[in-house]
């Protein structure tokens, strides 16, 4: 496989997972998309204490962002600085940065976050990933689901649709012009039953698994932690 193509939600899936750092240290070319903050946990009001949106509602977080509240931007900047440091040590890297995974914010709030984050990652492409709303023009558009309706300057992700039963041929046709196409199955969320905070989940699998980003992008062999490869 000539390239590594993968992505993840920064700071989630197992406290001590080394997968992301292992990938970044590889010498072969890498194309990686990172989400910095967790939109689903905000929407569902179950963000962990370590997450940018802990203690906020969607409306409350939007107000804080729009008035440039120090608390929320201090949390975001902590994630930014950590991520920036990790990426600076990587070689042969093409990077895409999304401020929020599956964002519920309106266009103005998403633009404020994109503008803030872009300053710190001048060598990465900025990604807008709204849950339902249209993407902002001028940014890479990421959409999730089996029929994302994307044509170019885009990233597609099955996230939330079981790839084992989805029409993968139709999915690939629908987003064939995208930079990346991510495969997803429920086991990749590392949940076996009730909800568990992502950093406390056990992501160890004893059987061999594959994750697909355009092509097969991350092979996880016996007893290797899924970790950051899963998102």
Task: Give a description of the structure.
The structure is a single chain. Helix content is 26%, strand content 24%. The chain has helices spanning 19-25, 39-43, 58-66, 70-88, 107-118, 168-174; strands at residues 4-9, 30-38, 93-101, 125-128, 140-144, 154-157, 180-182, 204-205, 209-213, 215-220, 224-225.
Q: How would you summarize this macromolecular structure in one to three sentences?
A:
This protein has helices spanning 19-25, 39-43, 58-66, 70-88, 107-118, 168-174, and strands at residues 4-9, 30-38, 93-101, 125-128, 140-144, 154-157, 180-182, 204-205, 209-213, 215-220, 224-225. With 231 residues, it is an alpha/beta fold.
What keyword list fits this structure?
single chain; 231 residues; alpha/beta; 7-stranded parallel beta sheet; two-stranded antiparallel ribbon; 6 helices; 11 strands; 26% helix; globular
Cα(first) to Cα(last) distance is 20 Å
The rough form would be described as globular
Q: Structural class given helices, strands, pairing?
A: alpha/beta
What's the helix count? 6
**Unreliable sequence segments:** 206-231
Describe how the helices and strands are arranged:
Blueprint lengths: L3 E6 L9 H7 L4 E9 H5 L14 H9 L3 H19 L4 E9 L5 H12 L6 E4 L11 E5 L9 E4 L10 H7 L5 E3 L21 E2 L3 E5 L1 E6 L3 E2 L6
Parallel strand pairs: 1-2, 2-3, 3-4, 4-5, 5-6, 6-7
Antiparallel strand pairs: 8-11, 9-10
